Automatic annotation (TrEMBL):
<keyword id="KW-0143">Chaperone</keyword>
<feature type="binding site">
    <location>
        <position position="38"/>
    </location>
    <ligand>
        <name>ATP</name>
    </ligand>
</feature>
<dbReference type="InterPro" id="IPR019805">
    <property type="entry name" value="Heat_shock_protein_90_CS"/>
</dbReference>
<keyword id="KW-0547">Nucleotide-binding</keyword>
<feature type="binding site">
    <location>
        <position position="34"/>
    </location>
    <ligand>
        <name>ATP</name>
    </ligand>
</feature>
<comment type="subunit">
    <text>Homodimer.</text>
</comment>
<dbReference type="InterPro" id="IPR037196">
    <property type="entry name" value="HSP90_C"/>
</dbReference>
<feature type="domain" description="Histidine kinase/HSP90-like ATPase">
    <location>
        <begin position="27"/>
        <end position="182"/>
    </location>
</feature>
<feature type="binding site">
    <location>
        <position position="172"/>
    </location>
    <ligand>
        <name>ATP</name>
    </ligand>
</feature>
<dbReference type="GO" id="GO:0140662">
    <property type="term" value="F:ATP-dependent protein folding chaperone"/>
</dbReference>
<keyword id="KW-0346">Stress response</keyword>
<feature type="region of interest" description="A; substrate-binding">
    <location>
        <begin position="1"/>
        <end position="332"/>
    </location>
</feature>
<feature type="region of interest" description="B">
    <location>
        <begin position="333"/>
        <end position="548"/>
    </location>
</feature>
<dbReference type="InterPro" id="IPR036890">
    <property type="entry name" value="HATPase_C_sf"/>
</dbReference>
<feature type="binding site">
    <location>
        <begin position="98"/>
        <end position="99"/>
    </location>
    <ligand>
        <name>ATP</name>
    </ligand>
</feature>
<dbReference type="GO" id="GO:0005524">
    <property type="term" value="F:ATP binding"/>
</dbReference>
<dbReference type="InterPro" id="IPR001404">
    <property type="entry name" value="Hsp90_fam"/>
</dbReference>
């Protein structure tokens, strides 16, 4: 060893190392990913050099990991391009110095189109100090004189030593002298797990030192597959390989419903492989549910649950995004504001919706499976993503009055094609359950006119419809909302309607005086046949289902003020209108209102009062019948 010298780092290493270790890396095992990435980078550099220098030997490039438990040392070595003395000073003497970036710049743009360099050497290398209190680097460049190498050593405290050494082989060895309580990184199986997790798809073979049980002979065992599946040509990947990759990626034993493998080149280069699962996870609706995308940068695993690339309404999508443009040391905080992230997010949303659209069109049975599992999640889309509301709305499925089943199979395209010629709106009703929606009195006129109505009974439906205002120029209309247009659908002429209102005006006034401000208004309706009365909400007021939704989340909601609409053709309403006895009149009107509120909300503030009122009226009715029988006798 000769020509040893001690040099100061070119930046305030203590502060920067502390900041990096505690801010840039969330878990200690990341260091192994970084060092393996740098080794892969060194191999890629050598391959580029070989393009212009065929004498360079690029065969059998690999990364090796060696464990010395006695000395508590971990060694990561490669046989890549290596470094000269000045390169060591330049690359290891400055925090965040990117040797790779400088190398690419030196090659020129024409030679970098297909490169697979992944390093940001400076920052990645210094992650070694997360687990080591001393780091030694032994390296020899392919351009160095024979057996001439360089030794770099530092404790990360502000300076480092560098000296010339004898080194026979080309490449780099990084020797980590582990800190106390970091012995877990001397365990072979723990290291295998880290390599499988982070570096499974590095294109360079990663080998770990093991020994035969019989003779203790050293064996180098390859850990990773050494090729990222998503980097291969789609035509070379079998369906079974796609399925197996999904299972390894998601820890899901079921096959995926569908997947989309896409490579984009140009202004931005990235590869995406997206999957739609067959079954929703048990924690899909938990607040801490993790998104399913993994982020890679140049085949190097960066993070799980990369929620920055997918909106919540697509959180069921599993897969990977591998970017050539993001830095290797990217953090979640930086991702949030990175313009590349935003571009990738838009592209992945588009790709996901196209994938779902293709499944809906070409694999209807599979799409129905998807909808049953994830339909309620997708319903969050119109509110969350206005820019894609049209495409999302085409993917929605509903139950309707045209089918005798609660299974949601009707698309908005289906509905529009079946609309009546004179029909201008898409009608729907929201209720607590399928049966409550299907048998609602609000549908009586629509049944008679054979007008299809969408039946909405998922909790999220009313909230969704507040943001889904129209489809292909057709506005949505709730049948439980007050609307003069709905009365026009009834087979009643304006003249008959006017005469009815005039003749029953005293009755309406009497009802208004009775109910006062308990209702927002009282009117007649001609869209009922078997029901005496309903309550409706004004178009600008909060709806019943929305009030329930907000209340279920613990939010304060305004009191819903209803419009009370009565059916003038119903026999009970006629009887109430003719009643002179005030007590009997009150009983009738209160009964109609309670029935209407019960049908609209599914509950009553005082159900016992409602029951007692019905019992009193039944007793009066039975007495009346008995008296009639006696008189006739």
């Amino acid at each position: 060893m000769h020509e040893q010298e001690t040099l100061n780092f070119q930046s305030e290493v203590k502060q920067l190392l502390k900041l990096m270790i505690h801010s840039m890396y969330s878990n200690k095992e990341i260091f192994l990913r970084e060092l393996i990435s740098n080794a892969s980078d060194a191999a890629e550099k050598l391959r580029f050099k070989a393009l212009s220098n065929p004498d360079l030997n690029c065969s059998n490039l690999r990364v090796r990991i060696e464990i010395n438990k006695d000395k508590r040392v971990l060694i990561i070595s490669d046989n890549g391009i290596g470094m000269k003395r000045e390169e060591v000073v330049e690359n290891l003497g400055t925090i965040a110095k990117s040797g790779t970036k400088s190398f690419i710049a030196s090659l020129g743009s024409d030679n970098t189109k297909n490169n697979q360099l992944i390093g940001q050497f400076g920052v990645g290398f210094y992650s070694a100090f997360i687990v080591a209190d001393k780091v030694s680097v032994r390296t020899r460049s392919e351009e160095s004189p024979e057996n001439m190498g360089v030794l770099w050593e530092s404790s990360g405290e502000g300076d480092y030593t560098i000296s010339n050494i004898e080194k026979i082989d080309r490449g780099t060895e990084i020797i980590l002298h582990l800190r106390e309580k970091e012995d877990i990184f001397l365990d072979v199986w723990h290291l295998r797990g880290i390599i499988n997790k982070y570096s499974e798809h590095i294109s360079l073979p990663v080998e770990i030192q093991t020994s035969h049980e019989d003779d203790d002979a050293v064996v180098w065992e390859k850990i990773n597959k050494a090729q990222a599946l998503w980097t291969r040509n789609k035509s070379d990947i079998t369906e079974e390989e796609y399925k197996e990759f999904y299972k390894n990626l998601s820890h899901d034993n079921s096959d995926p419903l569908i997947w989309s493998h896409n490579r984009v080149e140009g202004k931005q280069e990235y590869t995406s492989l997206l999957y739609v699962p067959t079954q929703a996870p048990w924690d899909m609706w938990n607040r801490d549910h993790k998104h399913g995308l993994k982020l890679y940068v140049q085949r190097v695993f960066i993070m799980d649950d990369a929620e920055q690339f997918m909106p919540n309404y697509l959180r069921f999508i599993k897969g990977i995004i591998d970017s050539n443009d993001l830095p290797l040391n990217i953090s979640r905080e930086i991702l949030q504001s990175n313009h590349i992230t935003q571009t990738l997010r838009l592209a992945l949303i588009k790709r996901s919706l196209q994938m779902l659209g293709a499944m809906a069109k070409n694999h209807k049975e599979k799409y129905q499976t998807f909808w049953q599992q994830f339909g309620r999640v997708l319903k969050e889309g119109p509110a969350e993503d206005r820019s894609n509301a049209v495409n999302i709305s085409k993917l929605l499925r509903f139950s309707s009055t045209s089918y005798p089943s609660s299974v949601q199979t009707v698309s908005l395209d289906d509905y529009v094609t079946r609309m009546k010629k004179e029909q201008e709106k898409i009608y729907f009703i929201a209720a607590d359950s399928y049966l409550a929606a299907k048998n609602s009195p609000y549908l009586e006129m629509f049944h008679k006119k054979s007008i299809e109505v969408l039946l909405l009974f998922d909790r999220i439906d009313e909230w969704m419809m507040n943001h889904l205002t129209e489809f292909e120029g057709k506005k949505f209309q709730s049948v439980s909302t007050a609307d003069a247009e709905l009365n026009k659908l009834a087979d009643v002429t304006s003249e008959v309607q006017k005469q009815t209102e005039q003749s029953l005006e005293p009755f309406i006034t009497r009802v208004k005086n009775l109910l006062g401000d308990r209702v927002k208004g009282v009117s007649l309706t001609h869209r009922l046949f078997d029901t005496p009365a309903i309550v409706t909400t004004d178009v600008n007021d909060i709806s019943t289902q929305m009030a329930k939704l907000l209340s279920s989340t613990g939010q304060e909601t305004p009191t819903v003020k209803y419009l009370f609409e009565m059916n003038p053709e119903h026999e009970l309403v006629k009887r109430a209108a003719e009643t002179k006895n005030e007590a009997n009149f009150v009983e009738w009107i209160e009964l109609f209102l309670a029935q209407a509120l019960f049908a609209a909300t599914g509950t009553l503030e005082d159900p016992n009062q409602f029951i007692q009122r019905i019992n009193r009226m039944l007793l009066k009715s039975s007495e009346s019948i008995e008296n009639t029988i006696i008189v006739n006798k």
